[in-house]
Batch of 2 targets.
Target 1
Amino acid sequence: MSKPTENRLWGGRFTGASDPLMDLYNASLPYDQKMYDADLTGTKVYTEGLQKLGLITSDELTAIHKGIEEIRNEWQTNTFEEKAGDEDIHTANERRLGEIIGKHIAGKVHTGRSRNDQVATDMRIFVRENLEKLLEFLSGFIGVLTKRARQEIDVLMPGYTHLQRAQPIRWSHWLSCYATYFTEDYKRLKQILVRVNQSPLGAGALAGHPYGIDREFLAKGLGFDSVIGNSLTAVSDRDFVIETLFWSTLFMNHISRFSEDLIIYSTAEFGFIKLSDAYSTGSSLMPQKKNPDSLELLRGKSGRVFGSLSGFLMSTKSIPSTYNKDMQEDKEPLFDALTTVEHSILIATGVISTLTINKQRMEGALTMDMLATDLADYLVRKGVPFRETHHISGDCVRTAEELKLSGIDKLSTAQFKEIDSRFEADVKEVFDFEVSVERRDAIGGTAKSAVLAQLEALEAQL
Ligand code: ARG
């Protein structure tokens, strides 16, 4: 047998006991208590709105606010006692308020309000606070990337396509690539925040407020930028959750690619970077192992965040307007994604600020064949069409291979001339990696000036 129904706010119509498993199944308090603060603040401002309407007296308001602060303190100090019938954070807080200030006054706080506009309000406040925190951590992370990029601007390494050596780049260019991704994430998050920060409060269960509450006043009091203009939308809209989950998924997608590169660069075969001990672990069997677990987790956790997005999209698909209990399924994926993203940003920041690079290995991985394009460009500068020079450069690569030379740079000027008479002695100047990266000085390129300009532009956006 389950517990009596008297604690339930909606208990009036329900006399029978419910299935205890149903109580568990229905309850969201185990996870939505995370929003206790938003819920209490929401009630505080809502009751101010009621008082303005003369629905509660100023003495009652004072008592309510005092009670709310007492409850807040209980949550903060871990002394809030949950009781049977506390279905969610909203019912728990209201039940407790009644115990502290008496049911007569506490019974007025929900006038004209429904848990439908209440939960939507709490969620938006909660999401807003979390996104603001993420913005701060993200900007710290980007700052570490750009700082490192400035410090190590002189280090060259291979750039890859298809994970095959392609053209020389600066290590800083790689750092700046991800700093660019994360800066776009930062800007995208700010845009999402604008849509998150709208107030559903005062929409009631679905049809609006019967006492003409000042919704602008409520919105302002809760730090919202605007009021959601339709009461049905106000209670049913979870796009802000979906957008947050999408943002999180995309961010984790970027982080997983960033991590994968670093995992590859940290292998003995590459040896470009070494993770600090703080972000690696050993093997329980093989004493020599140092594993990049931090990066593997960053890569792996991207999957669970993507799962949260797709799961919740499935939950909301085809539900009728307006509030339906399916929507309670917004919380666990959202909370999990926010925590995962927050920790991931902090771990990635730690990894990138403590790893060490091996300049010799990075530059040692550059090979002369990576300058085959530069060789083609050499002839372009002498007026030969690129399609032709591409072919000629290919001939040089093949000839060097056939002659078993260690690289195309080892062909003599005579051998170059034999392949194409337009080659001259200055062809040797092509075979310099630094010259190659410096040539690419257009916006976004590998030249030092171009990379520094990127870093400056990124820093200016934060
Ligand atoms: N715990 C519920 C949720 O998160 C609160 C809203 C309940 N509303 C309702 N009509 N039963 O969705």
Target 2
Amino acid sequence: MTITPQDLRRAFPGDFTFGVATAAFQIEGAAKADGRKPSIWDAFSKMPGRVFGRHDGDVACDHYNRLEEDLDLIQSLGVEAYRFSIAWPRIVPEGTGRVNEEGLDFYDRLVDGCKARGIKTFATLYHWDLPLALMGDGGWTARSTAYAFQRYARTVMARLGDRLDAVATFNEPWCSVWLSHLMGVHAPGEKNMDAALHALHYTMLAHGLGVEAIRAEAPNMPAGLVFNPMVTMAGSDSEADKAAEERAFQFHNGVFFEPVFKGSYPEAFMTALGDRMPEIEDGDMEIISQKLDWWGMNYYTPMRVADDRSEGAEFPAIKSAPFVSQTVTDIGWEVYAPALKHGIEELYRRYDLPEMYITENGACYNMGPNDDGVIDDQPRIDYLAAHLKATAELIKGGYPIRGYFAWSLMDNFEWAEGYRMRFGIVHVDYETQVRTVKKSGEWFKALATAPSKADDMAA
Ligand code: FCB
């Protein structure tokens, strides 16, 4: 029996925030509207062999044209907060130079629309849609991109900084650095360690410059960064696998957490790859490690690792180890809620971290409407319930988790998987753009609107 949403709600503090999340490129569509220019994801998705079915973001969920209706939908789910991202190619279409007021107007309407409906706004400045024009300078492998980001951040904050509730510079640098420049899965599709190491440092620098921009325009705005920490777990108790797990931790998490929270790159990583990093200029590490008000964790699945002994294996010299749980979602990711708990404990043990939000958590299940038009996605409910229970236990243990955002508000463009992988708690029919709240959406609403313990006591 799954725990009832009402009982689950009582396990959280009264002021805990429940929200839903999306990202611009995944839902907006309207790729050429009102002065928007292409991003690296427009280019990437139009190249054969990159995205499943050669799907692209031209229309997506047509959210750009259905803004009011979608904000009503969010309100109807009874959630308190909405996490969305701002499309850089709408605001500064060529990456540098001309600012596009019409792009800013869209986010003005979005933020005001949320305010009018009593919904808090958590904006992300970069969720992977780099203006394509910046590839002319090397994209994230160029230092100049970090300064272009700073100016874009300042432009956004000058317009919206008086009304947002929180802002994050980046979503998941792991993806825009390693997955995009080393593994070649995401735009721009590079598979090159040297490129990835440059993207790493310049993304970190851009984050720090972005924090400066936020503070310059909106000094009281809670500024944060959203990570997708790999919850690394050794495939066996052998010393070799345990050492591999530590290397994996440093490569996948340490390279992002340590610069931001300690002002340095991990020693083992620098020993192995430091000579291939771009020049770290005087002052860079201070810019990167400015104090943050909050951080976000996106979590879906653990990373099980074993030692890779093959000749010439490059740092971190790891390979995948088998799943432990038999439950796997439709995208093939292992379902294992204890790793959410382990991951957060481990990160607070290693770093001096501020308060946090679970900024994304959810599951891919692709079932559509049955004959009655109902989308019965019980496995998604089970997934959400298990991970929310783990979250509540962490809070009881004293971890400062302030909120939880379900990924995602609605089915959308799942990057290299195109539209075939569905994470929404609301179903989208891409032919008609009809949105239908899934069973999980009703469940999440019941959770978000249920009275907390504090409400009971006040009554
Ligand atoms: C995360 C991304 C988000 C979504 C989910 C499934 O890595 O931040 O955009 O694609 O995965």
